Amino acid sequence: MRASYIAGKLAMHEKDLSPRDVLTVMEATVYHDLGKVFAPPHVQDLLNSTKHPLSKIELEEVNGHVGISVDYVKSFQPNDPRVLDIIAHHHDRDFPKPIEPWYTNEDRLMVKLETILACADQTDVLLSNDRNYKGRRTVAKTLKVLVPQFGEEMSKLAVAARLRIAC
Ligand SMILES: [Fe+2]
């Protein structure tokens, strides 16, 4: 829920997003990690592990929660089918995502919505004790991680939104 609040704040700041777009990215953010709940027990152990770094195989198993989330959310038909695509990209490693010249306006919009969810999620993880085995990061360390991926403006907005929420 915290991440969804941050995503909403980021989305409302984007002038080219419609109210439906804002609600869609907030809905995707609420559901994005549901797959963790349904992951097999050995993956649950990895999700709660303080081991760092995880091996490549372990990391792939942990990231399997993304597909489980998509399948589960698909089963109850979200209000907007774009929710599934946004969730599917929340652990992509290529932020900032390249905007190719052949992208349609809808492609660009999807990149923006995927970026908002990823930024909101990472911000919440970094500034929370309960989602991060390393413990809550400082604002400076959080921005050091976020800015190269999401830019200074979005990163600072996300941090400010997260800091407005207790705990
Ligand atoms: Fe996730």
Care to describe what's here?
The structure is a single chain. The chain has helices spanning 2-13, 19-31, 34-37, 41-47, 56-63, 65-75, 82-88, 105-126, 139-150, 152-163. By secondary structure, it is mostly helical. The mean pLDDT is 92. 65% of the residues lie in helices and 0% in strands. α9 packs across α10 (152-163). It has one domain (2-90, 110-163): Hypothetical protein af1432 (Orthogonal Bundle), CATH 1.10.3210.10. The chain is globular, with a radius of gyration of 16 Å. The protein is built from ten helices and no strands. It starts with a helix and ends with a helix. It binds fe (ii) ion (FE2).
Question: Termini separation (Å)?
Answer: 12 Å
What is the makeup of the main sheet? none
Cα Rg: 16 Å
CATH architecture: Orthogonal Bundle
* Count of distinct structural domains: 1
Tell me the overall shape: globular
The CATH superfamily turns out to be Hypothetical protein af1432
CATH topology group = Hypothetical protein af1432
Ligand kinds: fe (ii) ion
**Structural class by sheet pairing and helices:** mainly alpha
Number of helices: 10
